[in-house]
Each structure stands twice: as C-alpha cells, then as structure tokens.
Amino acid sequence: MTSADQSPPPLYAKREPIFPRRVKGSFRTMKWWLLAVMLGIYYLIPWIRWDRGPEMPNQAVLLDLANRRFFFFMVEIWPHEFYFVAGLLIMAGIGLFLFTSALGRVWCGYACPQTVWTDLFILVERWIEGDRNARLRLHRKGWDGEKIRKYGLKWTVWFLIGMATGGAWVFYFADAPTLLVDLFTGQAHPVAYLSVLILTMTTFLFGGFFREQICIYACPWPRIQAAMMDEDTLTIDYRHWRGEPRGKLKKGELDPNQGDCIDCMACVNVCPMGIDIRDGQQMECITCGLCIDACDEVMDRIGRPRGLISYMALSDQVDEQAGKSPKSVWKHVFRPRTILYTTIWGLIGIGLIVALFIRADLDMSVAPVRNPTHVVLSDGTVRNVYDIRLRNMYHERRVFALSVTENPDLQLSIQGEETNRVTVGPDEQALLRVYLTAAPGTLSNAAERSPVRIWASIAGSSERVYSDTVFNGRNQ
Amino acid sequence: MVDPKDKTPENKVSPATRQYPDTAAQMKQDPPTTGHSWDGIEEYDNPMPRWWVWIFIITIVWSFGYWIAYPAWPGIQSATSGILGYSSRANVAQDIAEFEARNESFFVQLVESDLDEIRDNDELHRFAVNAGGSVFRAQCSQCHGAGGAGVQASGFPNLLDDDWLWGGTMEDIHLTVRYGIRNEDFLDARWSEMPAFGRDGLLNNDEIDQVVNHVLSLSGSDHDAAQAAEGAELFEINCASCHGDGGEGDYFIGAPALNNQVWLYGGTPEAIRESIYYSRFGVMPGFAGRLREAEIRAVAAYVHQLGGGQ
Predict the structure, then answer these.
(1) Quick one: which H or E segment has residue A446?
(2) Closest of A156, A171, A169, A166 to residue A203, by C-alpha
(3) Is-contact A73 A50, C-beta < 8 A?
C-alpha cells in the first residue's frame, strides 16, 4: 500500500476544474423536482398576502426589522418572544442530527442552497456550452470568439440568477411589491441595495466558481457529520466485492474472471464533487446519488443487475460480504437513536406549538424604579414607582386596566391619567409610570419589603396577565 | 473483512484500492527549513498561499490610496488632513448641529409657551421631560441625586415627595432653577436665613430641648409631652413667625413645614436640635446664564413630573 517514491502532498491543492456529465435517472429526476420546489418556495413566499387588518402589514412572511416584528402567516412574534425562533433553531439542529444519523448527508446532497444553486449553475453551463466533453474542449482551448461569447453569456446568466437570488432575499424584510418598485426607481434603502449586491456576488461566485470548494474547505458540516454517522447510517457506497477486479469489456463481453465494474468512469464523470466513489466513502461526497443513476444505466446496458453503487450502510457491507441479506431501509431508518432524535424533536415542536397557541396577545413587563427605592410623602404615605410596559399584540385598539392583588394596603395610580385605564393602539406598546402607595399605619408602609402582584387586563374581556414584584416600605 | 465496529482509518475505507501516503517516507523529504532553531524546534520554509500573498499586496497598494485620501501621517501640530477632508471631530460637530437644528422648534416653543402650556402639550412636554432629564443628570444630580431623591444628611432636598421649601408649581420650580437659593449673583434669588438660636445665645440648651420636643409633637413623632408643652410658647415667640403657628411652613420665605413626615435634615431629636442650635440652610446656584432659558424650562418640567409637582 505504500510506495517509497511518493512525494509529500503539497499543502496547497490547486483546484481541478470539474465538468460533470449529464445523467438521467431517478435520483436526478428527484433532484430536479426538489430544486424546482425549493427555489419556488424561496422566490414566491414573500409575495403571498395575508390579511391582518387595516393597520397591519399584509405580507404573509415578513421580518420587519424596523418595527421589530416577525410575521409568519397567522403568527406574529415580538422581540420578547424570540425564544420561538431559538426553539425553531434547536429543532433545525436536532432535525439535522436526525437526518444525518438516518440518511447521512442527505441535506448536503439535496437541500443545501450551495448544492441547489450549483446544480442550477451547472444546468446553465450545459445549456450554453454543451455537455462534459464540449465544456472540457472549450476550457482547454485558448480565448477565441466562441469561448468569449459562450463564457460571457454564461457569466451573464449566472449574474442574473445571482441578482434574482439577492433580490428575492430583501423581499422578506419589507413589503415586497413596494420594495420591488423602490428597487427599480432607486428609492429603496441603501441597505437593500447592499444586501442585493452582497448576495448577488456570493451567489455568482459560490455557485459559479467556488462550487465544491465551499463544501470541502469552507463548510464545517462535513466534519461534524462524520461524528454523527454510525454503521447503520445510509450512505452511498460501491460494492467492491461485486465490482472488483474491475476491467474493460472485451469484445462487448464481461470476462468471467472480472467483476461487474467495467471501469467506464461514468460515476466519476457525473460527480459534481469530482471524486471517485469506488474509493469508498470520503469527506467530499455529498451523497447526491448521481453516480447511482450513472452506474445503473451502465449496468442495464451490459445486462448486469443494478446497484453496483447504491445507498447502503456499513453494516450492510459486512452482511453482504458474509453472504447474508442486508437489513431493510426501514430497519436502518427506524432504530433507537433516530427514534430518540425524533422524540426530542417532536416534543420541542409540540411545546412550541402549545406555547404559540396559549400565549396571551397582551403582555406586561414591570421594572421597579430603584433610585430611590421609595419616597415618604408629607403625610407619611410611602410611594414606590414602577415603569410598566404594556404590549398590545393585537390588531385593534384596546383598553388596558391595571390593578394590584396580594396586598390590600396598596393603591395604584398611573402618572398623567385620571383612572387606572389606558388605551394602547393596535400592535403597539405603551410605557407607563405607575405609582403604588401605602397609607401610613399599614403593614406595607412599615415593612422593609412586601410582595405585590400587578395585573393588566383587557377591559370587557377575561384576558389578563400579571407580574410579581415587591413594594419597598420604610423598614421601621 | 470490514468490521464496522472497528474505527481505525484503514477499516473506514472499504475497497483495497485506497492509497495511503507513507508518513515515514514523507519525513525523509521534508521541505527546507528557514534555518532558525528555537530550543530544537525548526520552522518549515513553506511559501504562503498565493491568494494570501495577493491580498497582502493589495492591502499594501490600498494603504497608499488611504494615506492620500484620509488623515494619516502625524505632524508636530496635527496630522495630514487627506484630500477627502474627513475629520471625525467635524462629523460629530455636524451631527450635533443637525440634532440641534431638529430640536430648535421645540426650544423656541419652550421659551414662547406659558409654563402651564408646556404641561398641556403632550409632544412638547415629552420633549421637555427628556431634554430636562439630561440637563438634570448633568447639572443637578451632583446634589439632588440621579433619581432626584436628594441627600438628607447634607440637606439636599428630595424632589420626589410632595413637600416643597419654595413651592412645587412649575412657576416656583422655574424661578428656583433660574436664580438659585441664597445666591448672591442674582437679586431675584430666593433668600432667607434662620437664626442660630443656640450659637448666638438666643435660647439656652434647656429651652432648645423644649422646642425640639414641641417640633416633634407637631408631626406626631415620639416626644416628651411635658417638655413639648413648655416649648409651645418658645416656639410661638421664636419660630412661628416663619414656620407658622402649627408648623405648616411658608413657601414664600422657604420655611420648611414641620408638621409632616418629610424632613430636610432628618427628623431625629438630635438632627432637629442641631438645626435650631446652629441654624442650617442650603444654597443652590442660579442657572440663568449657564443654561439656555429653554433648558431651564425643560428642567423645571422634568422636576415637576418627578412625583411631587403641584
């Protein structure tokens, strides 16, 4: 396995350009469908309208950074409810664990934006320059009229796709129809143009030029995933015990002493990562399945059974080589580890949904003013001051009433208001300065501190929230 | 035979075709070193990656442009100014001017409105309270505290309660802030002085004790009833002209009310005794001339809304 004359590998590896050949098959078809669906979701979502009433934005999905609101269809998230987003991120993380332990790098192969956009860019490249051999020829020859024309056209189309990508991104952060007009009339916010520019350039460079290098050098996921896979994880591999020793067809016939692999290089030529799957599982492999399609096509043609390259787990290899039949796909997918991940994932999901539906559409936060902790008035009354923030997370103007419980000594009043009621506009918040007073002779007046519960309720409805705080007395 | 439980690298790769570089062979062909040796540790002389070198060169080229465009080289008095004329200090001055221009209409309104109008105009009042708050923290908080609670031990009045020395209406507060208390710079400054009854020999120690007990009785604090009864007459003769018969105080001459629970220097017998013996009163600077009239009005509005305004 070793050779003495092998020179040490250089630390800098020059990129070998990859020209993936066109391939047909079930995985390729599935990938085209996934590409269409995912790009469709990405481009169309900002344009879906959702009626929330006259004073609210009517965009179904909107990250309104200026007003600090996140709208997602019927759900509206305020900044203090950011734990929902944290919960979703945790679910996304555990979801990746789940998919990785069951299906390996299925995210890399099918759903990662880097894969999807690279696929799209390679499609454009093929339309303009032709398939693998034509592209190779064009790459190798000098700069002439044809090359300039084709490369120029390709780069232009890539750039336009990049612009469309960056352009769609900013629509998630502002009213899409308004922003579209503003973008073209030069009235949009500079940040919008900057975002479009950055995403245009990253899409153009990542999809057109960096491609597999992002996966190999920039992305942490290939390294992390290796730690999450086990012998039951489904990945793509080559049945070397069936294929070896490989050899070319002789007079269109397989030599009985050789394996099924006819060394046609189909699997290598279609690979967008530029690797040879017959070397076994390797870090560069994104498990996109295109080599399976390519090999199955060849096996059909030479009359050998399909599946020389296929999805399989490490344990299958052992079983198959020992002459046993491999486990079924379902047994690989449903095992204690994946069921545990699914359970955790599901529990967090259920928790979030329950939290979403039982949360009140009003909220109050109470901040006691502690400089000074209390004031003694001329008649001996002790007064505490609280800064109260009321949030009306509802699309109509509502009247909030404040009251105190747990402490009968205390009287509540709002600075600048005659009553204990305030009106808060739709989807707005009000900052109030609230006084609690304890008359002389009461327990709370003399005590160092006493508990108090402040309630905010919606007038004419049973909805209410409370906040517990303390009242500071004279400590006598 | 591949054993999936075996995690050694050779077993992770299934086909026999995989080639591994021989580390021993590699070691023999190490790249040249720089020739430096630190405690036997040598450094390979590998070239930097080309992309890195290019970025390095580009940043050097960029720096020349930067030197010309922006302030860069220090001189004796100042730095080179750069052809773009950029100056962070000028930017700050410009920002300040911009904000002042934006606030100018409010400042004009503050000066032109009656003090009561400021309270009734929501937008103007909000501005006055915010502007007054920042003036208060810069100019007033040293004595009155950042929260306005004052310092009793030093006789800096608490501005949050409902007891006032010189009145708690907007007009009163405005006048106090403008000219100060016992301030010789302004004829209009509020002025009054309490005699030092003990030090100047107006009352002897026993009489002072009797007055102290009478003063304590006015606010319902613990006191010696016999002493207080004796002190009642002394109080009427010596104190009532300013503090009132019942100790209700007088805003006009800044005489504190003695019949309530708010004490400027503290409500203990010792503190009251010290006040009578030595006479204690505070001073406050006048802010006319130091602050703009609009700022004085803003600070009056701020103090008024702290909780004690009348």
Answers:
(1) helix A443-446
(2) A166
(3) yes
Judge: A8–B21 Cβ closer than 8 Å, yes or no: yes
Task: Report helix, strand or coil for A400.
Answer: strand
Alpha carbon of residue B217 to chain centroid: 39
CA separation for the pair A453, A364 (Å, rounded): 12
Residue A307 near residue A317, CB atoms below 8 Å: no
Q: Mean pLDDT of all residues in chain B?
A: 88
Collapsing DSSP to helix, strand or coil, A251 comes out as coil
Of residues B1, B15, B162, nearest to A278 (C-beta): B15
Distance from the Cα of A48 to chain B's closest Cα (Å) equals: 38
Residue of A11, A237, A379 with shortest CB distance to B260: A379
Matching residue, tokens 């960056």: A166
Q: How many Å lie between the alpha carbon of B29 and the closest alpha carbon of chain A?
A: 7
- Token pair listed for B202: 């107006």
pLDDT in tens, B205-251: 999 999 999 999 999 889 999 999 999 999 999 999 999 999 999 99
For testing contact with chain A, the best of B2, B18, B27, B151 (most A CBs within 10 A):
B2
| Residues A280/A238, Cβ–Cβ less than 8 Å | yes
Nearest to A98 by CA among A349, A340, A330, A282: A340
Say whether pTM exceeds 0.80: no
Nearest to A96, CA basis, from A274, A212, A220, A214: A220
Question: What ipTM was estimated for this complex?
Answer: 0.76
A-facing residues of B in 127-146 (CB < 8 A) are 145-146
C-beta atoms of A280 and B12 within 8 A: yes
Between B122-139 and B88-112, two packed helices, what is the crossing angle to 10 degrees? 120
Cβ contact B286:B178 at 8 Å: yes
Q: Kindly identify which residue of chain A lies nearest to residue B161, measuring between CA atoms.
A: A377
Residue spans in chain B of domains classed CATH 1.10.760.10: 103-191+284-304, 205-278
Integer Cα distance of A298 and A304 in angstroms = 9
Q: Best-predicted range by mean pLDDT among A7-21, A323-337, B254-268? A: B254-268
Residue B163 at interface with chain A, using a CB cutoff of 8 Å:
yes
Residues of A in contact with B145 (CB under 8 A): 371-372
Instruction: Give the pair of three-digit tokens for residue B184.
Output: 């010789």
**Residue numbers in B near A261 (CB within 8 A):** none
Q: Report whether pLDDT(B84) > 60.
A: yes
A369 has a chain B CB within 8 A of its CB: yes
C-alpha dist (Å) from residue A8 to A5, A110, B7, B27, B102: 9, 35, 25, 8, 69
Domain B103-191+284-304 has CATH 3.30.390.30: no
CB-CB contact of A58 with A51 (8 Å) = yes
A6, A237, A317 ranked by CB distance to B22: nearest: A6
Maximum CA pair distance of chain B?
Answer: 117
Which domains, and CATH codes, for chain A? Answer: 26-227 (no CATH), 230-327 (no CATH), 362-472 (2.60.40.10)
* CA dist., res. B212 & res. B275, Å (int): 10
B205-278: what CATH class? mainly alpha
What phi, psi does B273 have (nearest 5°)?
Answer: -60, -40
Question: Is B4 within 8 Å of chain A by CB?
Answer: yes
CA distance A368 to chain B (A): 13
